[in-house]
Every structure is written in C-alpha cells, then in structure tokens.
Amino acid sequence: MTAVAAKPAAGSAINPTAMVIGIVMLIILLGIAYVVSPGLGLMALIGVVIGGVLIGFGVHFVPVGGAPAAMGQAPGIATGVAMLAAGAGLAGLFGGAWAADQGFVIAIITGGVGGGMMMAITCMMVNFVYIFGMGIPAASGKVLKDPITGDSQPEYKSQGTEGHGLPFVSFVGGVLGGVLGGAGGTLIYLELLSLYKATLPNIMSISAAQALPIAVATAGIFAIGMFLVNSVLTAYNITGTIEGPHDPKFKRWPRSVVASAVASALCGLVAILIVTF
C-alpha cells in the first residue's frame, strides 16, 4: 500500500537550465557529425534523433502499473516502463525491418502498425485477465471521468486503491505509444541501414550484395540498443507508474524528449563514426 499511496518523486518540474544544456549538447553533436560526415552521415544522425524523440515521447503514452497493478491496486500493465516500451518498439522495429524493401514511408507505417498491434493485444489481454480472472472493472484513480468516453470512474474504483485495469483512455494511450515507438525505432533502423549500405562496400572492399547482411545486422543492433537507451531514460523520467496521457506525469515529456534527443545523437554519432574512420 505504501507504493500505491506514494507521491510523485521530487524534481518533476522542468529545469530550464538543464533543458538549455541538453539542447546545446545536441547542437554540438550535430556539429561534429557535420564536420565528420556532412552528407549522408549528418542526415542519418538527424533521422536517428527524430526516431529517438518519437520513442521517448511515445513511452509516456504507455500505461504501466508495475507491481501494484499485478495485485489489482493500480491501473496499468503489471511490468516496468522500459520492458513494456521496449517490447512494443521491438515488435514495430521487426515489422518495419521486414518492410524495408517496400519503401521508406511504407516501412515507417508498418513499424508503427506493428508496435500498435502489440500494445493493443497486450492491453486487451490485461483487461481480459482483470475483468474475467480477478473480477474487477477497469477504473482510473487520476481522473473522475474518462477523457474519451466520459464514463465516471470513482464508482468502479475499489477503496484503498489507485484504480485497476485499463480504462479506455489508457488502452488508447497504449496503442498510440506503441505506434510512436514502433515508427521511431524503424526510422532509426532505416537511416542507419541506408548509411551502411552506402559506405560498407567501399570500406571493406566488397560488393554491395556481400555488404548487405553486415549492414542489416549492424543497423539492427544499433537500432535495438538505441531503443533500450531511450526506454530506460524515459522510465527514469516517469519514476514509477503512469496511467497514460491523462496522468499528471505525462506533463514531464518535454525533458524526456530533450534527453532522448541528446542520447540518440550521441549513440547515433558512434554508429556513424564506425564507418567514417
């Protein structure tokens, strides 16, 4: 009960100084990419940063309840922020990678659909277990009415809990988070894949066909790693559980976006440097 009743951790307010420092660091990293690889490398890094921002922002939509949710004492899915977000993003990333040959736009859409479907199935099964397995309805402890359906929440919330299950707004938020995460992860993969396909044949003195498997594997490894980095960063920003876009913690997204942009730029720069020198 202590975990359920705990107040948000200190430091939830936006720190303007830290935000400015983060933006300056981002500009410096982009400047380094411009000096090292002003053409394809810089464009790839910009795509990686955008993908990382989509991931960091999308994670805030995902309803995570942690251990209290497992006991039906808090809304959300009974797991951690990083694990759930990474699962949704990787599902989208695999879908987008499968459609990479179909074109840039189609691959991004496919990645978003893959992540959204994973979250939709997960949210549906969570409510199925809560309602038919535990015998409790979905109710939010953050709002009096569902922002989308307008359904009243207090009447269905058990006494002594913060709510339980996944209200409709949390379900929709989870799907949106999966779409953004899947699209962001796919964008990172595609940008790095294009860079490696163009540079590896010359660096390794091999044909394009021989370089393709290496490019695919390397881009996939970096894309998965960057997704995990952004998921963990956002988990620290959320600090605990979150119900979705209606949760007060959702307002913390600006600092997470800046942190994800800087982290993605740093990781992306490393991914570019390995084919530059």
UniProtKB/TrEMBL annotation:
Keyword presence, Mitochondrion: no
Pfam families in the cross-refs: MtrD
GO cellular component term, pick one: cytoplasm
Compartments in which it is found: Cell membrane
GO annotation terms (biological process): methanogenesis, from carbon dioxide; methylation; one-carbon metabolic process
Domain of life where this protein originates: Archaea
Catalytic activity: 5-methyl-5,6,7,8-tetrahydromethanopterin + coenzyme M + 2 Na(+)(in) = 5,6,7,8-tetrahydromethanopterin + methyl-coenzyme M + 2 Na(+)(out)
Record has Transport as a keyword: no
Assembly information from the UniProt record: The complex is composed of 8 subunits; MtrA, MtrB, MtrC, MtrD, MtrE, MtrF, MtrG and MtrH.
Protein family per UniProt: Belongs to the MtrD family.
Record-given protein name: Tetrahydromethanopterin S-methyltransferase subunit D
Organism: Methanoregula boonei (strain DSM 21154 / JCM 14090 / 6A8)
Name of the encoding gene: mtrD
